[in-house]
Amino acid sequence: LNAINVKTLVFPGFPTDLQQPLTTLLTQANGLSLVEETLYENRFKNTYDLNRMGAITNILSLNKLEIKGPKKLKGTNVIATDLRGGASLLIAGLIAEGVTEIDNCDVILRGYGNLVKKLSSVLWVFALIYSIVTIICLLTANFCSIKYSRELMTISFFDLFELEGYGLVKAVYI
């Protein structure tokens, strides 16, 4: 993956809604990338947490950002300030080593339908921990249920630990 320069524009240009998730991806690219946001101000809030995770980003102006990569990201506690910024932190959490906890995750969950179900289908296990989520672990029955609203996802602890042993499972707490 190589560094790029990108400028957000109205259709048919590069969509501003993809700028923040792309910024996270560019932390893994070789070289110096430049992102120019031409439609909105304050779209680089997510970079403060990306830097705390090990990324090297530098806000050059209200609408220009540089990203040096590749950098190894490490899990930490982060805050989703908006939908796209939250999505970028979720992506960073999936890339990072260790556990990433995302506070204010309701902004992400409102914007992306069935997010937990979609991501768990690619072998990532998510534990949702905040006010409307209940986690019930029934060790005697050898399974853990994670209930979010009306959805129920069940995975056995045996399967979880087996997948974890193969490096196929990672927990990101949102």
Explain this structure.
A 4-stranded mixed beta sheet has the order 1-2-4-3, covered by helices on one side. Helices cover 28% and strands 30% of the residues. It has 174 residues and is of the alpha/beta class. It has helices at residues 19-26, 46-52, 83-95, 106-111, 115-120, 157-165, and strands spanning 5-7, 31-36, 56-61, 64-69, 77-79, 100-103, 125-127, 133-138, 143-148, 151-156, 171-173. The two termini are 28 Å apart. The protein is built from 6 helices and 11 strands. The chain is globular, with a radius of gyration of 17 Å.
Labels describing this entry:
alpha/beta, 174 residues, globular, 11 strands, 4-stranded mixed beta sheet
Low-confidence stretches: 126-158
DSSP helix fraction: 25-40%
CA radius of gyration is 17 Å
- Give me the oligomer status: single chain
Average residue pLDDT: 76
Summarize it.
With 174 residues, the chain is an alpha/beta fold. 28% of the residues lie in helices and 30% in strands. A hairpin with a 4-residue loop joins strand 8 and strand 9.
Walk me through the topology:
Elements: E1 5-7, H1 19-26, E2 31-36, H2 46-52, E3 56-61, E4 64-69, E5 77-79, H3 83-95, E6 100-103, H4 106-111, H5 115-120, E7 125-127, E8 133-138, E9 143-148, E10 151-156, H6 157-165, E11 171-173
Parallel strand pairs: 1-2, 5-6, 6-11, 7-11
Antiparallel strand pairs: 2-4, 3-4, 8-9, 9-10
Helix pairs in contact: 1-3
